[in-house]
Amino acid sequence: MLGHFKRSKKATPAISTASLPDIVFILLFFFMVATRMRETEVKVKQSLPKATEMEKLEKKDLLSYIYIGAPAESYQKEFGSAPRLQLNDRLATPEEVIDFIATEKAKMRPELQNAIIIGIKCDKDADLGILSDVKTELRKANALKITYITVKDSRPTR
Amino acid sequence: MASRKLPEINASTMADIAFLLLVFFLVTTEIDIDEGINVSLPPWTDVPPPPVESQDRNTLQVLINSRNQLLVEEELADIKDLRKLARDFVMNNGRNPEWSDSPQKAVISFKGDVGTSYDMYIQVYNELRGAYNDLRNEMTRQKTSGRVARYVDLDPTTRDSLIREEIKIAIPARLSEAEPTKLGGK
């Protein structure tokens, strides 16, 4: 017993933490490579529907997003609770889609401008009315490739 | 002189700095996991498109109303049966006189209402697209004797492109979408 207590009083050698920064740096590099910067703050509700037949979106440089849904609670005082669409950082009307497409196209290389893909992130509870208005404007703006962003349905296929 | 030891630089704060950077990246970035159902819209014309011939045997009419009910060829249907229905319709090959002559002629026409929920719309679209995808995948397995499982995996840069073309002609996967009706608007 006595011997045991004596030993515990001896100072244990400090664990070297010199490799800790290396570990954290590896984590850091992983996150830098695997993620991309958040570009916009989404101001509308976004609970995406589930589907099974989607494809991975590989050409990120061709992709621009349109968000549709009811305004988030903190914005409902200002914008009401009817589904709205969001372009870049603000809530907009379907008529503004044409201008939005024009600016998005202007950011791209000229040879790629007609290959622009519009990712539609639409809330489950939004109705088809606003989506249809947006699609009409997209057709007018000649942005004909769209993709409905959905979440993978994990249920077994029927 | 030469044997004097250099004082060790304390590196314990390095971890703190790295953690700060890590937290910064965790907060400002997002992991990209987006997947989507690709759709090609028809070009804009000022002339309204001709109404779809609903009596035509080669057209399967799928309607959704503002209460998210599904109507297939003027009969109420369940979303669970839609994929099989669409599939049977396309692969009818003239057997049932009310359904399509051949997969090449078959068109699935699909129309919602302004009050239909986006969730329902995506489910229906998913099932119809799924029916076509299933058929194409089955044909892919048949043509490649099981080597390639899915149509999208056929590599267009190799000889598989021939098979891809062949399947595309055999099953054109025509899905036409009409402007939604305006009965259930809010």
Describe the protein.
- The complex is a heterodimer of chains A (158) and B (186).
- Chain A is α/β, with parallel strands linked by helices and 158 residues long.
- Chain A contains 5 helices and 8 strands; from the N terminus they run ααββββαββαβαβ.
- Chain A has helices at residues 2-9, 20-34, 76-79, 97-106, 128-140, and strands spanning 35-37, 50-51, 55-56, 63-69, 84-87, 90-92, 117-122, 145-152.
- Chain A has a 6-stranded mixed β-sheet, covered by helices on one side.
- Chain B has a 5-stranded mixed β-sheet, covered by helices on one side.
- Chain B is elongated, with a radius of gyration of 27 Å.
- Chain B starts with 11 loop residues before the first helix and ends in a 9-residue tail after the last strand.
- At the A-B interface, α2, β1, β3, β7 and α5 of A face α1, β1, β2 and α3 of B.
Keywords:
heterodimer, A: 158 residues, alpha/beta, six-stranded mixed sheet, 22% strand, elongated, B: 186 residues, 4 helices, 7 strands
